[in-house]
Write a structure and sequence with these properties.
Layout: H1 25-40, H2 49-74, H3 82-98, H4 102-126, H5 132-150, E1 156-157, H6 161-169, E2 171-172, E3 175-176, H7 177-195, H8 197-207, H9 209-214, H10 219-245, E4 247-248, H11 256-266, H12 278-298, H13 302-318, H14 321-325
Antiparallel strand pairs: 1-4, 2-3
Helix pairs in contact: 1-12, 2-7, 2-8, 2-10, 2-11, 2-12, 3-4, 3-5, 3-10, 4-5, 4-10, 6-10, 7-8, 8-10, 11-12, 11-13
Length: 326
């Protein structure tokens, strides 16, 4: 009597061991967004080189702040003050230029302002033990008020053409200067996070702070450094705003904290810390910039764009690997 051997059908699709689709959702989503807008807005010129370069220009400031925010969120903290820091830094940089301190003076003034605020945030979080959400929520409002008070809400024009070229409106051939800023700092941030002991300590601090501390990682110092970094990058973003718009304004960066956080989380960095990706953050930032650009071309107003941003943040957290595990 012959025994019947069950026939096992081979799966139609191959299985990839260790491949987690959720880790790459931002890349698939970005491609999907590009395809959607390319088809629906083809006649409106979405795919023209001019519009695509505009997306890069409009996204540069968000990208730089998001790169630094990746380190903060990877440690399990958050910084809501980046938009306000950018606004105040743009004004300080513009005032330094007006006072005759030149490009170097404007750079020191703008980035220095961000570093000072980042230091305050970091000390309040590490030394006073106030949750970073509350600290940066408070400094966000205080800095916003200070930016409005410094110039009585009046813009500060920048007539230094070299500054405007270097920090925003310049092009080297077909390549926007803002794209070069983004590429350079993306490379630096990626190397720091993935190839240095500092990056490993950042991820260890966010993954399990107590274990990291017992392993010899000075977690409080790591957190202070990442807040300093975020402040510095927000200060530089403020100068890029000023260079692109040829003026410093108190309204620059308004609402940017939402876009920055969304870019980081959507890119694959865990909101709970311990997991971070620089390339994913950049793609998340470009995706948000592409969505904003497409919505503007479609004729949606600011309120509708804010609704879309809110939905993006919710989806980003929902698809976050850590968020689903805890």
């Amino acid at each position: 009597m012959q025994s019947k051997v069950s026939k096992v059908e081979k799966p139609v699709l191959p299985k990839f061991k260790g491949f987690e689709w959720r880790n790459y959702i931002v890349y698939f989503a970005f491609v999907g967004v590009l395809i959607y807008f390319s088809i629906t807005l083809y006649d409106e010129g979405f795919l023209t080189s001019g519009n695509l370069l505009n997306i890069v220009r409009q996204t540069a400031t968000i990208s730089l702040m998001a790169l630094a925010m990746t380190f903060v969120i990877s440690t399990g903290e958050i910084d809501l003050s980046v938009g306000s820091i950018a606004a105040l830094s743009s004004l300080v940089g513009a005032l330094a230029l007006q006072a005759g301190y030149g490009i170097i003076g404007g750079l020191i003034g703008g980035v220095g302002t961000g570093i000072v605020v980042g230091l305050i945030n970091g000390l309040l979080v590490t030394k006073v033990a106030i949750p970073s959400f509350l600290v940066t929520l408070g400094t966000m409002g205080a800095i916003k008020g200070l930016a409005m008070w410094v110039t009585d809400t009046a813009p500060v024009p920048i007539v230094n053409s070299n500054f405007n070229f270097i920090f925003g409106s310049g092009d080297i051939g077909p390549i926007p200067v803002l794209l070069l800023w983004t590429v350079v700092f993306t490379i630096i941030a990626h190397v720091l996070l993935r190839k240095t002991s500092f990056g490993r300590q950042v991820l260890a601090t966010g993954g399990n702070e107590s274990a990291a501390r017992f392993s010899g990682v000075k977690t409080m110092r790591i957190k202070l450094i990442v807040f300093l970094g975020t402040g510095a990058m927000a200060g530089l973003a403020g100068l890029l705003y000023a260079g692109r718009m040829n003026a410093g304004r108190f309204s620059f960066g308004e609402g940017d904290e939402l876009s920055v956080i969304a870019a980081v989380i959507l890119g694959g960095t865990s909101l709970f810390g311990g997991v971070g990706t620089i390339i994913g953050t950049l793609v998340g930032s470009l995706m948000i910039g592409t969505i904003n650009n497409g919505l503007i071309i479609m004729g949606l107003d600011v309120s509708q764009q804010m609704i879309i941003k809110g939905i993006i943040i919710i989806l980003a957290v929902a698809f976050g690997k850590k968020a689903l595990k805890r």
